[in-house]
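Field notebook, page 367. I keep forgetting to write these up properly, so this time I am using the form the group agreed on. The chain and the ligand, MTE, are recorded exactly as supplied. Prediction of the bound pose follows.
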Amino acid sequence: MATVDESVSPPARVADPGEDISLDELRLAARNHGMPLEALRYDVTPVGLHYLLIHYDIPHLDPQAWRLRIDGHVRHPLTLDLAAIRARPYVTHRVTLECAGNGRARLAPRPISQPWLDEAVGTAEWTGTPLAPLLREAGIRDGAVDVAFTGADHGIERGIEQDYTRGLPLAEALREDVLLVHTMNGQPLPPQHGAPLRLLVPSWYGMAQVKWLVRISVLDTPFAGYQNATAYRIKHWPDDDGEPVTRIRPRALMQPPGFPDFQTRGRILDRGVHEVAGRAWSGWGPVTRVEVSVDGGATWAEADLGPQPSRYAWRAWRWTWHAREPGRYDLCVRASDAAGNVQPVEQPWNRQGMASNQVQRVPVLVR
Ligand SMILES: Nc1nc2c(c(=O)[nH]1)N[C@H]1C(S)=C(S)[C@@H](COP(=O)(O)O)O[C@H]1N2
Ligand SMILES: [Mo]
């Protein structure tokens, strides 16, 4: 394989103090768009408003020629076409996905990568066939520990040329709610979300939801590929092994109230009574509490929670604000979950900007 010039894939680094977002980061942000926060009003995010994260290029896969290979530490390797997968029993789960890098651009110093603010989230109705029965049909052999999922997309990251591949512990892969998904919001999976087939691991951050799936390999040794061993880890210094990123930490977001200023997106609101509303979710258990602050997190008031529509989907919340005095306010919202996790007001820092869940801040001018 030809050596790729080092300048193509510079080492991971954090921005220097005061270093602005670069054209490289802007290019990533323009390709990988977030969900406009006003779309928090939808129970299920319309497909075109769902966030996107694509490491390399969107591959074009001919659905007729496409095959899924299940191999590795199994007794009967399988090759399936799309018709065979679509003919299998299927279920639909409403699941909120969030990128593990959400919030990264707010860290100081800023890890240089896709510069998300708060918006790398979306909820869809995902339809597909459970993975576990397929793995059992392939005959998992004794000693299996991990399952590797490979996409058809190819690229280079930090000098490592690869097809996007993620490993998942076997016990997680055998969860009955882990699906091979071919349908999103009742429509065939679109190209940007992994057509014709993607993996869905409810409650885990986005990196586990492998798109453009072409190969599932059962492994008898822990998966040591780039996306698990290097990329999606919570590290504190350059050669820190760190901890793997897994489930989604709790987060609440509000639909920014009032109307925005075009450039700053600061909000303008008339004095009076306003309904502040949004959604909250956690991969560690149901959201049990949402609180709102209008003074930047100094004092908090309890919001009303809507029903929990699915174990894996965000939950609506609302709070009535009596905005009596004109002036500037710093609106914040935070969620707590059944496991006892609460969103931090000050985000603990990590080198790759993974699994941040600091409270959202929305500056509002009441006039
Ligand atoms: N094959 C492949 N799968 C992938 C990715 C990718 O780049 N290639 N990106 C992952 C990441 S980091 C995220 S956050 C989610 C995003 O899913 P979405 O674009 O459907 O919202 O897909 C995951 N699956
Ligand atoms: Mo992601």
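OBSERVATIONS:
- The chain has a mean pLDDT of 96.
- Helices lie at 23-31, 82-86, 131-138, 170-173, 226-231.
FOLLOW-UP: compare against the apo run.
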